[in-house]
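step: validate -> pass
step: tokenize input -> pass
step: predict -> running
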Amino acid sequence: MNGNRLEIVKLGASIETIDKNAFANCPYILSVYANMEFPPIIDSSVFANDGDLSLVNLYVLESAYVRYKKNRCMEGFRFASYARSRTISSRNSDFTHQLHAETHP
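step: predict -> pass
step: emit ->
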């Protein structure tokens, strides 16, 4: 994705591994939506050269929040959680707004 203006990353429930450099050099990423119960297997190169990850919201399932927070590969992101009953959809413009209200410190 080198140099891509990608702003939102949506990871499906079946993702288990993210390849090296998959989202490297994408400094415009604002949000990552992880719809998996368990954090994917990644290394530090996945988001290499993407700027300050503390400005990137990582949205995870409410039921998986603790697993993601404990995962060292996810350090640096700004965490938020959402209830399983909600679905990630680009057609629902209010969805992101609802999630921001649940951002964890």
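step: describe -> The longest helix spans residues 94-100.
step: cleanup -> pass
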